[in-house]
Amino acid sequence: MKLLRECFPGFGIIGEEDSLLIPSDDGVNAYFTIDPLDGTKAHIRRQSYGVGSMVALVLSGSVVAAYIGDVNSREIFGYRPQSSLVWRITDMDVVERLDGDHSLHRSTRDQYVLL
Question: Which of 29, 49, 81, 107 has a Cα-to-Cα distance from 64 of 20 to 30 A?
């Protein structure tokens, strides 16, 4: 939270199920949604899948960037503003573009991504 507030002053932050709510400053129509430990029950069971951290950026009511980190595999999947590409980042230094299933005749952004 400290990093988001420092790098994006005025942006709001909404935590999991509104347990945290920092409103955006007047005139700023942007906020981050954060779920630091999605899959709490899976984490408690010590599952090797189904546990992640999620961050999304919402501008004027639309999600423009979203990242999901798999805490067990140390992979991050996401997309950024102004791009229709989805990326996979591993070990924080290897980045690869994910092309998705082009047989669906939909952009990668409109396809579902499953960890």
Answer: 49
Beta bridge partners of 76: 69, 89
* Cα 69 from chain centre: 8
**CATH fold group of domain 2-110:** Fructose-1,6-Bisphosphatase; Chain A, domain 1 (3.30.540)
Write down the pTM of the prediction.
0.66
Position 114 scores a pLDDT of: 46
End-to-end CA distance of the chain: 24
Q: Name residues whose C-beta falls within 8 Å of residue 92's C-beta, 6 or more positions apart in sequence.
A: 74
- In this structure, what token pair is assigned to residue 93? 């230094």
> Domain spans of the chain?
2-110
Phi first, then psi, for residue 53 (nearest 5°) are: -120, 140
Q: Which of 33, 49, 26 is nearest to 1 (CA)?
A: 33
